[in-house]
Prior knowledge:
alpha+beta, 2 strands, 46% helix
Amino acid sequence: MIDKGAHYTELFNNFIFDTPEVQAIIVSDYGGLIIAGERRQDIDMEIVSVLTAVVNPILDVIRNEFAFKKFGTAAFDT
């Protein structure tokens, strides 16, 4: 069986290492439930949680505005 959590962690850590301007990565499902995430060691998880709470309403608007389109993935950069 494949350990998806380990794969997410490795992928996110590689991305964060290769992209210095990225501080944290959060992946959520369509309903807003966080599936996986990773952050730099010097980033406070409380800050990431607050930013997630701030960004979630914006993502709701984006999901509703583009609900008529059928796309598989999207990215939101803050």
